[in-house]
Amino acid sequence: GGGEAAAIGDIRTVISAEAAYQADNKGYFGRIECLGAPTGCIPGYQGPTFLDPALASGAAKSGFKRTFHPGEAVTVASDGTAAWHGSLMSFAYVAVPVESGKTGVRGFCGDASGRICYTTDGSAPQVSDGACAPGCQDLR
User: Are the beta carbons of 8 and 138 closer than 8 angstroms?
Assistant: First the structure.
């Protein structure tokens, strides 16, 4: 359905936004609120937001509830300097139907590796350490 296509599109958008954010954040991903308001996380940042604040809010959209799962927090960057606020080693972003069977059939997960996968029953795919768990079926 249209809701599923929108949810998959939004997961792709989050993965792309995280990749762009990573380039400006010493090579680390960011908490979803940092993508919507990067000036609060990256000191001196003056560019555009990486993600529409509505999408960054996690509000239900197109019949899907969305949840951001931060991976391990980074406090010290690989160069020995302090990592910026909200820096992460990985992330996963999950979208599940608000009403399974009505607003959507499958539950989706996308993560820092670029992988997008799904459950056939609309349940939330399992997330482990900021990654979609192996039992989730890869979207082709």
Answer: no
Both tokens of 38, joined, read 């990067």
Query: Which residues partner with 128 through β-bridges?
Result: 131
CA angle (25 as vertex; 19, 28 as ends), nearest 5: 65
* Comparison of pLDDT for 112 and 1, the residue scoring more: 112
Strands 116-119 and 127-128: unpaired
CB atoms within 10 A of CB 89: 15
Q: What is the pLDDT of residues 80-89, one digit of tens each?
A: 998 999 999 9
Q: Are 49 and 36 in contact (CB under 8 A)?
A: yes
Give residue-wise pLDDT tens across range 4-28: 999 999 999 999 999 999 999 999 9
Q: Is 117 helix (H, G, I), strand (E, B) or coil?
A: strand
Looking at residue 119, what is its pLDDT?
Answer: 96
